Amino acid sequence: MKNKILAIALIVSAIFTSCNNNDYDAPNSNSDLGWYTSALRQTEWKVGIDKYMSFSDLSQGTIDHKWTISEGNYFLKGPIQRLDSVFDQFIVNRGATETTDKTIHVLFKKSGLQDIRLYNTFKDSVAFRGNDTIPAVKMGDKWVMDTTFVVDVYDTIVPAIEVRQAGALVPHENPLDTIYIEAGDNLEFTDVTVIGRPDTWRWNVGGSTSTDQVATLVFKKLGIWNGSLQLSRTTQNVPGDWEQYQIPVNFKVIPSSQPFIISGEIVELEDQTIQIPFNGEFAPFTGQESHFTVNVNGNPFVIDEVTVNSADATLLEITLVDQIYESDDIDVSYDGMGTLESTDTRKPAAFSNLAVTSYFVNIFSEAASTLEDGGVSESWKPSWEDDTLIEVTTDNPHSGDYSLKLTFDGEERNNAANHRYNPMSNGAQFTLEDKTYILEFWLYIETGSDYVNMWPHFINGQWKGWWTGAASAVGTWQKFSYEYAPGGLKPGSAIMLRIPGEDRAKRGVMYYDDFVIKEKDVRP
Length: 524
Fold this sequence. Notes:
By secondary structure, the chain is mainly β.
């Protein structure tokens, strides 16, 4: 019999701080089987290349005994001191793969899975008793224990990367070459290292950084830049290693041929700053307030300052003298006559009456609001014994990749008069205070569905429901919004979607997305 052992938890009373090849003498003639290793209690045997492990056969009454190691690895002879780090000087019988020593010390010079085989024969039946009991097998007039320990040897990290521009592979090995890239564009960097199995990454190219194995880095500043990748192994119980790769090629960022424009949503931050994202970095400027207009509910508000975000020069920021509220209708305009320009000398074009998305705190969890965890948290699920057909799906999202889908198949299902869905993970609850709240969500009803009535409800020590006017959402995403004032501190709140009983036998499909519960913030 041959036992292939990947992991054995062993209890021992000594740690190998030095080693030698003294044979172990059995105290009597009885047959017994045992071993231990310098891996001690580890359940997986992992070691770095050019490191060693010790194995000791504690068996008694053996007839035959030998250790066999994989070719390319070596036996060592001590004493090896605790502070020794280079072990080639201790190699004995170079090229030998077998020994009858009781204790061996194996230097691993090959990476990957390496076998250490222990072969013993006995006149009596024996068994190893560890996490599992491993019995010897009788062969002829002997009992044979043929065991192989498998050690996973981690090689030194040898970095290898790929660089892509607009999806095309770009050579990067020649230090005399230059990769040209327009300001605001990006390159994709991929770690394709095979040797050494790194598990952490840090890219740094022209000041843009990423810790992803596949990193998309945006280049914003003009100039010629170098790049590097730091690779390491840091996973627990894996031999550590670290390597830095200096990317040979230069990266030259040149002025963009694209217009200098707004690149995303204009938003209000928590401190009431209005933030406008652009597709490039701004050069330093002052005194540009007179070229901007901020209208609040149709009236121009006094601008206190126009600046660039201190951490990201692609973000233009506007602060106002007076306070703004979440319920305000805010828009921003720029006359195009200022001295603003990007770091690569592009000037932003004028724009008019662009809407600002107001800041608010959504009491719903991120998973309950957007469903973008794919339903893993079960933020929305049937309550009690309800067996309504409900799922988080990619079939028809309003935003992102997922939405909540309810299917009505004409069956009278359990609790059909009161289908309810709790948005908080595992039935968790939230607390509403003595304020007015707004519930918002988006609804889509598939064309051809039977008309399905739907009421959203708060449960907050009382029921409160609203008619949705759901017919307006047939064939299109429609936003619904409702107010609710619980009238005091009410713990144990929940939101549920109630399908009235008279519609329980209808057929149709409904999708929900982007749920919001927020405090009503209105101008006094």
